[in-house]
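dude i think i finally got it to work??
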Amino acid sequence: MANHALAVLKTALRARKLDRTLTTALPALERHDGSALIATDVAALDACLRGGLPRGQLSEIVGPRSSGRTSLLLQTMAASTRRGEIAALVDTFDRLDVASAADAGIDLDRLLWMRGTGGPDDIVTRALKALNLVLQAGGFACVVLDLTDAPLVALKRIPFTTWLRVQRVIEGSDTACVLVTAQPLARSADGLTLMLTGRARWTGDADGNRHLTGADLSVRVVSPRRRVDGEVTIPSFATTATH
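look at this
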């Protein structure tokens, strides 16, 4: 009787595409097709990730200010546009520097840039609505939601079911959805969390003429399915930006 009830439950979850949330009950997924991944084009990191970030899943780039999270974000979007794919950025607090994006190698003709507007009380909500619209539209290889400057109180107000709905939308698609935050927010069954620590390297003076020439990063990879494990150090991670 118990086995029959369990079988009925699994069937119901599978019909609603919720079976992938049961990370402890399902066997690890094996990926043999490189097209199922989004490469970051950072060789050491892609080697650790066994090819890159998984498509059809929700992943995170997490780290404090100056940890290299923006550099890795730009590099990942640039890698997608170099392959002729389309990327999208929900820029919640309108922080993207276009010159830095171009210098990082992003093909701006292949980037949908949504700039956040509104007051501090509703700007995160508006960003989540924009993310949902883009994901439902489809056709994007990489969709990024930048919440790095969101206050902690605003992040805590986001229901966890929000991320479950995001996962439902992209599951089985060619889209890799990436959150960029100061702390972990979401987990999907086969998504990854990249925990960054590092030090940015700048040249120039402090009067608005400083140039970000690179970053030394340490990335700890958290994988619910243990598809990847361990930590990778990326010395002299080159990038270009101004400040």
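The helical segments are 2-15, 43-48, 69-82, 98-103, 123-137, 152-156, 161-170.
im so relieved honestly
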